[in-house]
TrEMBL record:
It comes from the Eukaryota. This is Uncharacterized protein.
């Protein structure tokens, strides 16, 4: 996958994580 914008959350198969790459 390509780099997603900071406003987009990382959706996994079980949970949703905040964009850590933005930190």
């Amino acid at each position: 996958m390509t780099n997603l914008p900071c406003s987009v959350l990382i959706i996994t198969s079980v949970r949703v994580e905040p964009p850590v790459l933005c930190l």
